[in-house]
Amino acid sequence: MRIDLHCHSTASDGTDTPAELVRGAAAAGLDVVALTDHDTTRGYAEAIAALPEGLTLVTGAELSCRVDGISMHMLAYLFDPEEPGLLAERELVRDDRVPRARGMVAKLNELGVPVTWEQVERIAAGGSVGRPHVATALVELGVVPTVGDAFTEEWLADGGRAYVEKHETDPFEAIRLVKGAGGVTVFAHPAAAKRGRTVPESVIAELAAAGLDGLEVDHMDHDADARVRLRGLADELGLLVTGSSDYHGSRKTVSLGAYTTDPEVYGEITRRATGAFPVPGTGGA
Q1: 223-228, long-range: CB within 8 Å, 24+ apart, which pairs?
Q2: Beta strand pairing call for 32-35 and 240-243
Q3: Over the stretch 225-239, which tens digit does the pLDDT of each residue have?
Q4: Which residue among 60, 81, 135, 273 has the highest number of C-beta atoms inside a 10 angstrom radius?
């Protein structure tokens, strides 16, 4: 089995629609794909309707969190999307995305960059707006050559000249909420140092004690040394180890299925989840 547990669609900051994403996953030879858009479940219905036969969909989300001033992302799998506590927190995070993005546009204007809110809205195309949409606007304007080049201290990285904070969930609270909704939690790309400061291992140990299920180890932002270190940490803390592409369509160079999760780990995730179940494809439109 080939299993990719971290993918984005146009419901947040990917460039493939949910339907295009699941069709692309099948074409890439995947058996299981997870839809994990940022702080939203908007793409579920379209993905399920288009799900090809032979492909299983894991519903999820990537939750925006912050601990000790450090931004981090928590992958949540197979939770009940209507559970009131987690739903309210996701909406709180999502509602803060628009004023935050508007604030980044204003800062960029102050820096002499002629980006407009209308441009960012067009790029987001109704998705959950975020920094990648502002970064794409900078690419369109020729300010930076790639989306990744916008995530520096000069522009949009944490603490950068055009950075604006948003509401982010305490990860301990995120674990509690996801568990309360019957879901499973995995710390996304925990050693992605090029994105900014990373969470110390001591805090990861505290998260594990609070119920964190796993670490995303095999990821494009982790070099070989980081993967070895994270595998050792996961083993020490009794955490599951996942791998995934963090696919964003044309917004990133990584392809679907570039990194995958062991079938036994996937099986354990599905065993732990009680809020929702993987959806088998029956040949969607």
Answers
A1: 226/191
A2: unpaired
A3: 999 999 999 999 999
A4: 60
Interatomic CA distance for residues 271 and 285, integer angstroms: 29
Mean pLDDT of 66-93: 95
- pTM of the predicted protein model: 0.87
**Is residue 128 over pLDDT 90?**
no
Contacts of 62 (CB under 8 A, 6+ apart): 6, 8, 12, 36, 37, 38, 39, 73, 74, 75, 76, 188
What pLDDT sits at residue 285? 58
- Give yes or no for a contact between 41 and 1, defined as CB atoms under 8 angstroms apart: no
Measured CA to CA, the distance from residue 186 to residue 176 in angstroms comes to 13
Q: Where are the alpha helices (DSSP H) in the chain?
A: 18-27, 44-49, 84-95, 97-110, 117-124, 131-140, 171-180, 201-209, 224-237, 263-272
Encode burial over 59-83: b for 16+ CB neighbours within 10 A, e otherwise: bbbbbbbbbeebbbbbbbbbbbbeb
Buried b (16+ CB within 10 A) or exposed e, 140-179: eeebbeebbebbeeebbbbebebbbebbbbebbebbbbbb
* Reported confidence tier of residue 30, pLDDT bands at 50, 70, 90: very high
Which pLDDT band holds residue 284 (cuts at 50, 70, 90)? low
Give me 26's structure tokens.
């099948």
Q: Is 147 in contact with 132 (CB distance < 8 Å)?
A: yes
